[in-house]
Amino acid sequence: MKKILVTGATGQIGSELIPALRSAYGGANVVAAGYRRSPDAELFGGGPYCSLDVRNAALLCEIVQKYHIDTIFHLASLLSAVAERNPQLAWDINMHGLNNILETARLNGCAVFFPSSIGVFGSGTPRKNTPQVTIQRPDTLYGISKLTGELLCDYYHRRFGVETRGLRLPGLISYKTPPGGGTTDYAVEIFFAALTEGTYCCFLKPDTRLDMMYMPDAIHAIISLMEADGGKLNHRNAYNVTAMNFTPEELAAQIRLSIKEFSIRYEVDAVRQAIADSWPQFMDDSAARNEWGWSPCYDLAATASDMLENIAVKLGKKGDGYYGVE
Ligand code: AKB
Q1: Would you say the CB of residue 143 lies under 6 angstroms from ligand 1?
Q2: What is the largest CA-CA distance in the chain?
Q3: Architecture of domain 173-212+244-281+298-314 in this structure
Q4: Which CATH code fits 4-171+214-240?
Q5: How far apart are CA 185 and CA 183, in angstroms?
Q6: Catalytic residue among 25, 35, 49, 142, which?
Q7: Which of 56, 63, 68, 325 has the most Cβ atoms closer than 10 angstroms to its Cβ?
Q8: pLDDT tens for residues 275-318?
């Protein structure tokens, strides 16, 4: 990787992946391309930035050629809950966007990173210790677009030799940029609510167990996979990866260790609950561990205290170890 393009730059993953890539490969070598949100000063000032709707194949190709791009991290996509509200738009952005990226990569000799999701599994899949290779009949448009994406990436690798790689990411927890309309978003919102209101109204049932990961682990996983020796990758486009799994009531109990008066109540959103109920409770990620050395650093306790610390600082409240749990 020498010249990198990141689409979806202003989203939850992009806003943290870009600074990490810029510090590893140099600011000038990482082009950030966003569309729906405006870039912050760090994204805008730390290296090249351009506005790109990934459905615009001509502009995408122009950017790739102008900056001599050799690796594309394609993060632009609609998440599960938003996609269920507008399936046609989700198909348009998720599928036509990926198709443009793969064609541009094929014509210009680029490698591609594609973030798949736990959403590729459906209600017919084993939900506990979900295998790397198993039944995939997703119930949502988001899942269908991610599963089609996995297959399209496999096809471009097999048929045209494009260096495609990808991860099935679980819910991602972070404080820098909010997620944009996913089913796992409660696991981010709850921290902000705990520090601002002292209480949170959760849209999933208390015992809904899902796979999760803290953003520093996700950034590490993405870069490690792209740097891994290709000869060792048997499941190159769709590695199960996870760091922890918990339910809303377990997360609330963890937060209560730092903020004793924190309370949670539940107003279940039927659409997001149905999505969550069709996803794995916890996946088997041994293929990622064995093939390219995946190993997360943050468990629930470490994630919760780091989130509370950093959000407290962001909100101008007491940080400095105040929310850490002994
Ligand atoms: C979502 O909830 O839609 C995403 C995901 C798990 O893919 N966070």
Answers
A1: no
A2: 58
A3: Alpha-Beta Complex (3.90)
A4: 3.40.50.720
A5: 6
A6: 142
A7: 63
A8: 999 999 999 999 999 999 999 999 999 999 999 999 999 999 87
